[in-house]
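> @MW can you paste both from yesterday?
MW: sure, first one:
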Amino acid sequence: MTNLFEFLNSSVGKKWLMALTGLFLSLFLIVHVSGNLALFKDDGGLAFNQYTVFMTTFPPIKIISYLLYATIIIHAINGFYLVAKNMKARPVKYEGKKNNTGTTWASRNMGILGTILLIFIATHLIHFWYEYKFGEMDWKTYVVEATTDNVLKEEVITAADAKAQNLKPATMDYMGNKIIICKNLYGVVETAFKDPLVVAFYVISMLGLSYHLLHGFQSAFQTLSLRGKNYEGLIKGIGTFVFAIIIPALFAAMPIYFLTR
């Protein structure tokens, strides 16, 4: 155990920790964007609200969520440490044009990109996660046809009424239909993304995420010595098209969808 802590405290160990936490967060992005695609479903927010209930009540997911929060903190602290160390190692700025051959803009500005993303994550958690867990939020009741899953009726329950009734998420059968009661996070998302400034902030942040992943995903495999010649093209392709283009584009499309529809 002592040797492990000594390794993680070393420069190589911190780079490994950065790579491993970065890859874990990359996997989480796939799960997160997949679940959030429910926002595009035209069902009054039922699918998305049910997704949020599952993500906040299913025990294994709750455990993983705590691991996720710890990973974000470790990744951020480690990133700031490595950036500060690199800057300290080059305290003198040489005059003239720098030689940036072999490096990309993203690789030279990972500290700035990471800071943008940390601000975004904090804002995002306060706006939605904290509001869902601790804020006073409206609830919604859905009447769903059991055989087709079509929403027959939906009704908003105000936060005050929900608190007075001590509501809990529930699914019940009633006369051949399903009655689903859950918090209406969809309504919070819908309201937030009607503000052009909020949408602009999210889109710019997703641009930062794109550049951060463009370098970070491939760099993680390089650090772990897993970027061999046989896999280099595959890793570069996944890092570029999946993580740097598709995932940020999908996340950015969500606020744009609510703003423009």
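MW: second:
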Amino acid sequence: MTISHPAEIATAAPLAIVGRERYRGYIVPLAVQRGGPLAAALPEHPRFAIVHVAGGSCVLNSTHGLQLIAAPAVILLDEATRPELLRQQGLELRVAYFDPSVVNSAFSPDALRETPAFAGTAEQDAYLLRPFADPKHVGRPLLLPPALSQQLDLAFSRMSAEGETQRDLNWPCRTRSFLIELLFQLRVLVDEPALAQRPAATGNRLDQALLLVHEWYNRPFTLKELAQSCGSNRTALNTHFRSVTGQSVRTYTVTLRISTAAALLRDTLLPIAEIMNRVGYDNPSSFTRQFKKLLGLTPRDYRKAESWMLRTRGG
């Protein structure tokens, strides 16, 4: 798609990134905003929102009533909900707005609410987005561990920089890929909000291992390093981790890496080598072996079978 006049592009695609030299006029319905009030909800351009409270505090007036919220925290919003931010004190916001179709073309806000289960692997992508269409999660602040707060800010910066520089032909997929990785991080927080709220000094520090695995999954780490960070030993940590997740630390980490890679293979056209590196592998043979062991296909064959983007472009 090509739109010749910049003014027309801005009007046709609010809260979006628009291609310039590469894929001129191509619209990615995703935008990052730093500071300022929340952008108004636009029914004709639906946008979910990830609101990162990076600094300060405020009173949030949402469907859940008045709530005091202090950094670091995150709020998930659907396309219609834009809570008031009252009594602000040094408030610093980072907000990512996106149409759910940016993750998978089968998705819209209504479809995520009305469809109990999508066909095939699309349901795995829907799992990442369902909190944005669920009233019990929308507008309810979640406390963030400091490390995850830093990850949110980094993801927002990467999305913003990639959309701004548009450095190569992969810029649309790479911009979207940072959002997909971020959704994986947020989903564990939605499922286990108590992990972020439990003080490390008084609660069970072993519970922090799950958040650390999600922070470290794309780089090498040992069970000993993880145990030391949780003030424990390898045996106690692995036993506790299995009781929480049903898997050992190693199995859970490998599954997380491959699940993230699978999402990026389905929902982007990034080179397989780049995806492999993004999820913590530097050896193609090892990556392919683990991927095939878990999903029954090589990464290349999986993409051919499951990528909606390949189907959309007819190849």
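> thanks! Residues 6-194 form a domain with the Jelly Rolls fold (CATH 2.60.120.280).
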